[in-house]
Design goal:
Helix content: 40-55%
Number of helices: 3
Radius of gyration: 17 Å
Distance between the termini: 37 Å
Largest sheet: none
Strand content: under 5%
Shape: elongated
């Protein structure tokens, strides 16, 4: 499962904090959570390439 929203916001987004808490408890019990930073890999590579060729 992937999301572009932080897990803390799911209750507000879905409207039922108790149900979302129970759902996340079940999903995350044996899960590996990978949290990526706000900067995407594609953006970084694109920016690096632009700097390399001198594009502003």
């Amino acid at each position: 499962m992937t999301s572009n929203r932080p897990v803390d916001d799911w209750g507000k987004l879905l409207g039922d904090t108790a149900a979302v808490t129970a759902l996340l408890d079940r999903l995350l019990h044996h899960a590996h959570v990978l949290k990526c930073g706000p900067r995407s890999w594609r953006t970084k590579v694109h920016t690096d390439l632009r700097a390399e060729v001198g594009v502003r």
